[in-house]
Every structure is written in structure tokens, then in C-alpha cells.
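Internal QA ticket QA-208
Title: Verify multi-chain structure generation after dependency bump
Assignee: T.L.

Test input:
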Amino acid sequence: MNETHDPKIKSWVASANAPDCDFPLQNLPFGVFRRKNDEGGGIGVAIGDQVFDVGAWVRDQGKSSAEFKLLTEKRLNRFLAAGPQIWSAARMALFNLLREDSPQREQVARYLDATANVEMEMPIDIGDYTDFYASVFHATNVGSMFRPDNPLLPNYKWVPIGYHGRASSVVASGAAVKRPSGQRKPPTADMPTFGPCAQLDYELEVGAVIGPGNALGETVPLRDAEKHIFGLCLLNDWSARDIQAWEYQPLGPFLAKNFVTTISPWLVTLEALEPYRRSAYKRPEGDPQPLPYLSDENDQQRGAFDVSLDAYLSTRKMRDEKIAPISLSHGSLRDMYWTFGQMLAHHASNGCNLQPGDLIGSGTVSGQSKHSRGCLLELSWRGTEPISLPSGETRKFLEDGDEVIFRGYAEREGQARIGFGECRGIVVG
Amino acid sequence: MNETHDPKIKSWVASANAPDCDFPLQNLPFGVFRRKNDEGGGIGVAIGDQVFDVGAWVRDQGKSSAEFKLLTEKRLNRFLAAGPQIWSAARMALFNLLREDSPQREQVARYLDATANVEMEMPIDIGDYTDFYASVFHATNVGSMFRPDNPLLPNYKWVPIGYHGRASSVVASGAAVKRPSGQRKPPTADMPTFGPCAQLDYELEVGAVIGPGNALGETVPLRDAEKHIFGLCLLNDWSARDIQAWEYQPLGPFLAKNFVTTISPWLVTLEALEPYRRSAYKRPEGDPQPLPYLSDENDQQRGAFDVSLDAYLSTRKMRDEKIAPISLSHGSLRDMYWTFGQMLAHHASNGCNLQPGDLIGSGTVSGQSKHSRGCLLELSWRGTEPISLPSGETRKFLEDGDEVIFRGYAEREGQARIGFGECRGIVVG
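Actual output:
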């Protein structure tokens, strides 16, 4: 914790000081933007309702220090490779430029654009994307639908289960989500048919973006794992449940997941999230202790970020009738059985090389309560319990025109509240 | 078929005309090399025991035509993006430069280096790597070990089963293969332990490298699928069977596979393979016909390449005693249940975007006979039938110091014989 976490320090950007603002001075998330009028863009930092064009500022000021020069790139990958000291130095410098009493206020003000005037792009070129399955509540719920006799497999409490996802189809918030086609075979049918997915779902997840990483054949001990995580974003792991049920054995989900994955475009740094740490999920009595390579008292103490997550739904009819989006899922990243540190240490435990800009998904964030279930599969219990919407409609799964909006934030007594912005996608047929 | 397939035309590079040469004039595979004396490198083409430094030749000659200028890049990705017409034009031009009666012989000769003087690098930057499971013999064998009551799952004959692999750990032939550690739990044990893999295996596969690909949300109809495949290589999908058995449910193999994948460095073009096409694997009576999006008479007629594949083993003792590597697996790509065209069309059927340089693995190539089983898991029947080696040793799985060498070639009466070179890796502890 350092001065950048001090909630008493305000910004000269007035909108950043509003109580519900996602991007106060204490947040400073990194992203990549493009001006809607096509007048350039690059790496930026969100402050209030403004984007600070850091790349242009660094170029124009002729800054050549390590923490700045990497911010003139088109994507954040090289900055991510530089590691926590550089990230922290850049954050401190940006904090000082944007604080109320900054002597550079007038200079910097020329590099601000209203968020409304920019479009956000992918902040990183993703080398590899891995999705985990770290909520024991989600795993148990889903398992009990697909394998009623055997809901939670014997490896779950030992192995942070994960699988490789598709990097090419990860898109930034706002991109349309085209309903995929694929093979589906209801249990009662004799043979599968090919056609549009009838059980389209969202999955409320958090993504972690990798910093320096490790060379092939080397490992990352758990105590160092967080040094390799730059920050977090929201992640919607759109899923075609009917395709998934038919294809997933024995090698896991494939076309049911890789048609699109949406992330929120602002990467909230681990340093910004520092004040919102809580002890990790406490394993119930009787659960095994993790093996030594996944055990670290400090990781468990520090490990979980108390990030509140919401998945909102807005149907076409709701928009027509000016009904506000409704929260379907409300959970916390703190409920995960495995921390990101454990996931990362596990991922590299066989020598698999993680690289700057790799993306790691948490898996669907579900908690114990019904409202905390992080996908429609769980909420509608595989379609058997349709959800009633304020528009008079019901939903088992997503219909064309439905927009799914994720929001996330962290708050704590005596601290600023910081948010993730939004992760949006609208389903098109 | 065109003049480049004419077996009667010889090269002025004498070694290319030897009867067992992998790289005659009719092959012309593309790769990326680096001179061992550090004097540069780039995109090259193999001819006999020589590498033609195409990149340097294009630069020095000031060639600016589309088929040439992309060959001055560091990797083949942009050339792959250009599509079959450009590939074919480049092949024809190279053929004419290297044929016996080429007027440019003396000019070109200055750009040749002995293969022995170069090291091969990764020919492509791989965006995404997908591994299929296209041998019904392999799937049935493995299934009967892991699920004796249910060896071949009901989806197998409908769905070209595939899953995402790890792109970052794909390496070029020759890189050491470090034995991974991970969680293993024998069925008789109460709990898993973490330690070095005790059941390290190879998988004899063929890789297909993607050319232009498709935009997100678009599909690739089967009739067009082969236009998106630049060429093939050998692929060793190293596997940790003990880790795999414990981790793979429900989301598929992860750390059991992603510690390293080795490919042969020369990409043999589909055009070079044209003479060795045979009708695809004939589904036994009673098997379902593929769904329409996977059905194309032309694909089935043209679809399979009759590429012979061998996996050789050389143990440390065998090398010490000057015993030649022994062929453990000998199969043919023709035995696959699904063609690469079907795999690609399936992969894109949900709108998943394939990109230039993506890698698609066939899955282990196993046939009906015992010798054609493409991995030790099958050959030693999960370790229950150890394999006797000419050195007096036995093997259930790979031991430290073991080198696995893949070779592949295509031959046909009245045609040249073309080969893939080697895909090598030595296991280190």
C-alpha cells in the first residue's frame, strides 16, 4: 500500500471524484482506445469519465524512462513484460499527474478525451487463453446436472481444473455476439442435428492478465505467482450449452466456447486492488489441504480480492419499454475455491511457459446463494426453472436481442471504491 | 497437378536427385532457418541437403512481386495469409530456379547453405493450436483403457473431436523435452502426489498449418476448407499419461499436454502432396454418414494424403552401442476417420476464426495393426505389455535420455518420393 491508495487524495478531473465513479484517482486502469473521429489512439488510462492519452503525452514530452516508453506501443504486452516495479512506477507517476495539486494539470488536460468519444480496443494481443473452473459451487451445480450420480469429480479439490480456450475469438466489450451453430443431440433423439444453438448462455468470470511469465521448462512458485499478474478484467465466457453437452467428452469443451469470449477493456491493476484483499475462501472441514506446491499461508491470507460482480440482462423488449437492466447474477470473486496465485502456480508447475498478455479466466463465479449463480444454466437449472423478467418475459437461455452487461467493483470501509467498467455483448441471430 | 509434380525433371542440386532424398525438386518445403555461425537466416526452402536462402535472394534481386516479397519476413505467417494462388506462384518460380536447366543456376547457387550449417527455427508464429482426435483406432484403444465399459463415446462418429492446445510451448524439432512434474494419483492411492511424470509418452501426429482463415462469425464450407491449409508437418504431442488420467475430467487434457509439443520445421505444401492423395478412410458399414456440413463427395475422394509415418526410438544405451533407432510406430495419415478438410470445416462451423499460422493437429495416427499404434500408451497397453528393444532394454514409457524421432514420406508409383524431414526430441530429467 502506498500513497496511490490514499482515499483522501482527489483528482483535478472532477468526474473522478463522484462517489460511484468506477475510475477514481485510486484506480487508474490501463487500456487501448481509438478515437471515434479516427484521430488516433493508443494506450490510455481511465480517470473519471475521461481517457488520458498516455501514449501521446509520453511521445510529446519526450519521456524516455522505462515506465513510460513502453506506453507508446499499440498494445500493453511489452509494458506487461516489464514487471511490477515498472508498473508501480508508472502508476505513481500517473497518480501524481492527475492528483488535485498536480503542477502539470494544464499540460495533461490537453491529452484527455471524453470516454464517450472513444472506442475501446483489445488492450493486449493474447498469446494463449486458459480458462479455469475455480468455483466449487459452479462445479457442483453443473456437475449435478451433467453427472447426477457424480457431481463433483474426485480431482476437484486437489487440482485447479483448467483447459485451454481460444485466443483468436477474445473480443473487447461491445462486439456483437453471433449465435453459433453446431451439433446438438437431445438425450431422446437418435442422432444429432446441426443448427443454431438453442441454449446460449453467459458465464460471469474474471480474467487475469499475465505479466513477465516464465521460460519453457521453468516453474513459478506460488509465493511469486502474483508478480506475474498485471491486473484483472471482467470476462464473459459465452457458452452454447446444447453444443457443449454433446461434444465435451472426452476432451472438454471446444466449439461450445470458442465462438466468442468478451472482456472488459480496462485492466485494473493488482496494485489498485490491494486494499480490497480478504483472506481466501475457507475450505470446509473435511476438505483436503492443497499439496505443497499449491500451499502458501501468505497466498491464502492475501489471496482473494473481494470484487463484487454483477451480470445484468436487458432484453429488446426491456429496452423498448425503458426498463432498466436486471441483475441476474450477483457474486464475489472471493468465493472461488482457488486463488489466481494457485491457478498460475499450477499452470506453470509442469514447465508450461506463460507469456506477457496471456489471459487466464477464473471460471464462472458462483457462490452459495441462488442469486450468486453466475450463468443461466445454473439460474434456470438447465432450463427447468425459467426466470421471470420485469418485462413479463421469461428466460431459460439467451434470445436474440438480449444484451448481457457485466459490472464489477471493489469497496471497503475507509477506502475508495474502484470499478471495472462494463463488459457488454448483445446476441444477434 | 502441374509441371512441379513431374518426376522426370531433376534439379541442378545433385543431392536432391538421390532416390531416398526427402527434399527433391518436387517437394520444396518452406521453413525458417538461422545459420549456426550467426550470419543471419530467414525463410528458406529445402532442396536436397541444402537450404536455399529465399529471403536474401529476393532482397538482393529486388524482387517485388507478391509471391516473393512476403518471403523476406522473419516468419511465414504473412505468406500464409496470401492464399493458394500466391503459394503456387512462388512454388513454380522456385521450381524454375532450381531445375536442372535453370538459366539462373549460378546466381542462385550463392544462396545455398548445407543443411548441416543451419539450425531450424519455428516456421510460424502460432496464434492458436488445436489438437484433434481423428483416428478411430486410437480413440477406441485409449477409450478402452480409460473407460473399459464405454470405449468409443457416442459422439465420436458424428463430431470431429478436438480441443485447444497450448501455442506457447510448441517448439521446433531438436529442442530438449524436459520431463514435466505434476499431480498423479494411482487408482489404489488415497490421495495424489506431486512429482515427475512416470508415464511420459509421445504421440505420432501430423500438423496442418492454416493459411488465410476466416473472420470471426464466418464459416468455412467443407468444399473450400483445403484452400485454407498451407501445408503439413510432423507433430509430436508429448503426453504425461499419469498426469492426464488424474486431471482430464471433466474439461479435458491440460498440464498433461502443454509442457511441450514438437513440430518438424519444414512445411510440406498441400500442392507438393497432391500426387499422393487417396480416397479417405472408408467408414465401415453401419457407421453413420457425416452430417451435411461434414459431407462432400469431393473431399472424401480427394481427402486423404497417403503419408507414411514412423516413430523411432533411440535410447542412450542404443546410441552408446551404435544400435540404430528402432521403429515403434508405423502408420499412415490415410487411416484417419476425419480428413483435415472436415476438421477445419467443423472448427469454423460455429464462426470461430482461424488465422494464418494457426496449427491443427490430427491427433495420434493409429491404424488397425499393432505396429501402427501411434503412442506407447497403446503399444505397451498402458504399461502392461512392455516393449523389448534391440539393446536388451524394455520400455513401458519414455525414460530420460530416450530420443524420439518421427519421419514421414509420401511415395507412389510413377511419382517422386517426397519426405518431411525429421521431428526429434530427447527426454531430459
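Spot checks passed. Chain A has a mean pLDDT of 96.
Status: verified.
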